[in-house]
Amino acid sequence: MAFRDLLSNARLIKDATSVQHGIFDKSASLGHDLIMFDNIVEAPGHRVATNLLTRPRLCEALQIEPEDFIDLLGWAMDNPTEPQIASYGPVMENQQEVVELSKIPIPHHWREDGGRYMSSSVIIAEYNGIRNMSFHRQLLKDDNHLVARIVPRHLHGFIKEARSNGEEVNVAIINAPDPVVLLAAAMSFDSNIDELTIAASLHEKVHHRPLELVALPNGIEVPSEAEYAMWGRILTTDADEGPYVDITGTVDDIRQQPIIEIDGLMHRNNPIFHALIPAESEHKTLMGLPRAPTIKSAVSEVCECLDVHMTEGGGGWLAAVVKIKVNNEGDGKRAIKAALDGHKSMKMVTIVDEDIDITNPVRVEWAMMTRWQPDTDSIILSNQKGSSLDPSRLDDGNTSKIGIDATIPWGYERSGFKSVQ
């Protein structure tokens, strides 16, 4: 299944729309509904889709029950599969050796942003025989250069090693592959796991056929049904990147970041560019959903974990609600410690019982107000590693963290804590 196959319910916008704030403004006016733009001023023949990757729309499109989604991601992490290599795919229908990135519909969404950004395009890199697929926002610099924010994870390590040897890193950049590829790219591992093997596992489980890859001229293999594929190199030089409205809705800093030189571009006939809007629900889903299975796995080591929700107020990243079944005294506090270990960037976690709808902030707050005593049911940790997305972190990058045990107190008659609503 291709990205475009999931857009049958999209609202079609035929009015002329500019990449300069027009996509954002129209989406905001429509409540960030699932939209496809058919008339982009700066990119004739190209279309734009946005707001697909919310949890309800993903579950509907992939025919997955919401309560099964986290377990599916967890299963794929534990059961990687090798993709299948093909000689040709739809992404190869059009090829450009002379690249003009300004003529594809890379959007300038927020007026606070430093320019036109690809926020949902994925970088696939190889160095010394190791492959990595991950998200790194890319600022359009000119017709064949981007500047990418490379956070200190595996690709950052590739670049550091390559630069120490005076070398560049070969990369591909893909836009609008099947959403299972995007979910796999958003996952984070301690070791150098090939995220495309996770994507292949998800693809076979959901679509019942292998994930096919095709090779670009620089040797990097990409999903054959992606809408766009670019190939190039991460250079040994940097340039300004930012400002950028990040997932928390705050404006990220300007930094010196690596330049990517694009050597060529392929795309499908009548291509559809995925123009994710930063800080909106699609962004939060894409970042937060892949964290949920790692949290659930960690909590399941110490108690019976039922579900995990990365909260909207936490930007889909900094806070979570975890639903457990309390079987033993102290399960709530054990769940707090495990959850914070399961997602190191998380700043707050709330533990609730199985009767609470963890996606409803009112019900979560109700559980806190009726089942939680702040002085005895909280865990506060100081001098913890913080997230760069948290502007309140200390100068050394550290933060404090809190866990709230909002489960029914152990030893009490549970009926007195149940709501009739």
How does this structure look, described?
The protein has 421 residues and is an alpha+beta fold. The chain folds into two domains: 204 residues, Pnp Oxidase, Chain A (Roll); 120 residues, 3-Layer(aba) Sandwich (UbiD C-terminal domain-like). Helix content is 24%, strand content 29%. It contains ten helices and 23 strands. Strands 5, 6, 7, 8, 9, 10, 11, 14 and 17 form a nine-stranded antiparallel beta sheet that branches. Strands 19-20-21-23-22 form a five-stranded mixed beta sheet, with helices on both faces. Helix 1 links the parallel strand 1 and strand 2. Helix 3 crosses helix 6 and helix 3 packs across helix 8. The protein is globular and about 70 Å long. It starts with 10 loop residues before the first strand and ends in a 16-residue tail after the last strand. The relative contact order is 0.13.
Radius of gyration: 22 Å
Number of structural domains: 2
End-to-end distance: 42 Å
CATH architecture identity of the largest domain: Roll
Question: Helix proportion of residues, in percent?
Answer: 10-25%
Query: For this structure, what is the CATH class of the largest domain?
Result: Mainly Beta
Features:
single chain, 421 residues, alpha+beta, Pnp Oxidase, Chain A, UbiD C-terminal domain-like, 2 domains, 9-stranded antiparallel beta sheet, 5-stranded mixed beta sheet, 10 helices, 23 strands, 24% helix, 29% strand, globular
